[in-house]
Amino acid sequence: MESDSLRSIRYLAARYTQRLQMQRQSGPMTILPTPIQASSSDDYIRPTLLLVLTVALVGVFAFVQVYSVQSILPELQRDLHASVVQVGNTVGMTVLAVALMSPFVGMLSDAVGRKWLIVGSVFALAVPTALITQVQTVHGLLLLRFLQGLAVPGVSVVIIAYIGEEFRSGLMVRVMTIYVAGSVLGGFLGRFLMGHLTEFMAWRTAFGVMAALNLAGAVVVWRGLPASRHFVAKKGISSSLNTLGQLLRNPSLQVACALGFTVLFGLVGLFTFVNLHLAAAPYGFSSGALANIFVVYLLGVVITPMAGRLIPRFGVRRTVLVAVGISAAGVLLTLVQPAWGIVVALAIAACGVFITQSATMTFIAYRITSGRSLASGLYYTAYYCGGFSGAWVGGIAYTLGAWPGTVATLIATQAIGWLIAWRFMPRTMPGAR
């Protein structure tokens, strides 16, 4: 039976269509954006195969650099004479930059538009990536990794708003999960390519190859992503500040941000320090072997689109509770001794995280109807602050308690996330039966 929330969405779409018809009857439309603008339902973008591939590639090029160093952390630690906390922060500094930049990019996007900010950000990612080829100290690497992170929100924040505006509610969830699947693929490719490239060349040279990849990505996104049709610019700082105040008081966004913090805390802590665990005795994994572990990320490419079908059926809250439980079970199972058992456990944990992330992003897209880009920015601020905390606190936990201490820290954080979803996520909302 159709939910009340879906009826509401269709009602709003009908109101938008009626408003557009009245606007057309009153005279020609102006070129500049007006405070209230709407389009008929036929004006929504239809997800062709080319567009679906482009949306997925946006996710790939946004995240191909973010976690690429994870598979070569032992080599970076040796070459740059870095401590465990310092080498962990080669991941942490990037996600910290994403966290700090996200709300500002959200406000900028709500004022100037979507597509060109996405394309420019994919291009900008290539610049610090290319400069890493010249780095000589861990502090220089940390600085350039921070600069990489500053460019990421121009893609990750803005594309969420773009999808929420340009696709009908029935297709929005599936397109969103395609983007998340692309971001999962990008996260995998970054780690996989860096790990295997460093088997054949110096890690600095490998970063040059990664920079060229982002340059090519900017061209692909520029050619394949349609211009916005439903974007309405918000002019003036006062409007943005007013929207910011409303969003900060929005209970749904507060819940999503708190949950997102715990999600990336666990993911970064897990997939950063498991590399040091497996590079040490008795495993002794090389960079290429560590890169192969991230094949488990390919499960996310399959699982995430499936989540797009499960979320409307089971509801966001129920999906999150089950997914967080699955992820925590996977983290706990990494304490087993055989290497293959650790890899299976990582796959289980990753699947839980991917489903949780898809459900949380869908939650935001349904619950936030104004200032979507800024809302996405605020969410990513909390999300990536969790990632930075996972890299920093995880480094301390690994230094003091090795891998068991790291696992205990991650499980405690995921338990907090589960309690947040159980206590504060509404039982009935769009996507629930």
Overview of this structure, please?
- The chain is mainly α and 433 residues long.
- The chain has a single domain, classed as Up-down Bundle (Growth Hormone, Chain: A).
- 77% of the residues lie in helices and 0% in strands.
- It contains 17 helices and no strands.
- Helix 3 packs across helix 4.
- The protein is globular and about 60 Å long.
- The N terminus is likely disordered.
In short:
The chain is mainly alpha-helical and about 425 residues long. The chain contains 17 helices and no strands.
So what's the overall shape? globular
Would you report the number of β strands?
0
N to C succession of SSEs:
HHHHHHHHHHHHHHHHH
What level of helicity do the residues show? over 70%
Helical stretch tally: 17
Structural class: mainly alpha
User: Low-confidence stretches at least 5 residues in length (pLDDT < 50)?
Assistant: 1-41
CATH superfamily label: MFS general substrate transporter like domains
CATH class: Mainly Alpha
Overall pLDDT level = 83
Give the strand content: under 5%
At CATH level 2, the architecture is Up-down Bundle
